[in-house]
Design goal:
4-stranded mixed sheet; 18% helix; alpha/beta; globular; 2,3-Dihydroxybiphenyl 1,2-Dioxygenase, domain 1
Length: 115
């Protein structure tokens, strides 16, 4: 059996709100939009998909997206300036980690490797 990567996606309760967050707050470039919204992060396809039950996800989220950054403190400051409630950075064995949630409660992590 051979596998080929397709996409990572989040279910969202309000597609317009989610697109605004990922585009305007995080700076993701919208690639295309129909029933779902598609963004590329390098070679990775990231999609926002309306929740199938038409209900709210109730702030619980359904996945974790981890993004590598070059300077985690600068990233934290920039997101806080945009009104994002982001945690203080935690030092780990091989880097530094922080996280925040999108409007549907999906966790987004920022990671800075020790180099």
């Amino acid at each position: 059996m051979k596998f080929k990567f397709d996409a990572v996606f989040y279910y969202v309760s309000d597609l317009d709100c989610a697109v605004r967050f990922y585009r305007n707050v995080l700076g993701f470039k919208l690639h295309s939009r129909d029933y779902v919204a598609r963004f590329y992060l390098g070679a990775v396809l990231f999609e926002l998909v309306p929740t199938p039950d038409s209900g709210k996800l109730q702030g619980k989220g359904n996945a974790r997206l981890c993004l590598e950054v070059e300077n985690i403190q600068d990233s934290i400051s920039e997101l806080r300036a945009k009104g994002v409630a982001i945690q203080d950075a935690e030092t780990k064995e091989n880097g530094t980690l922080t996280s925040f949630r999108d409007p549907d409660g999906n966790e987004v992590c920022l990671w800075q490797y020790v180099r």
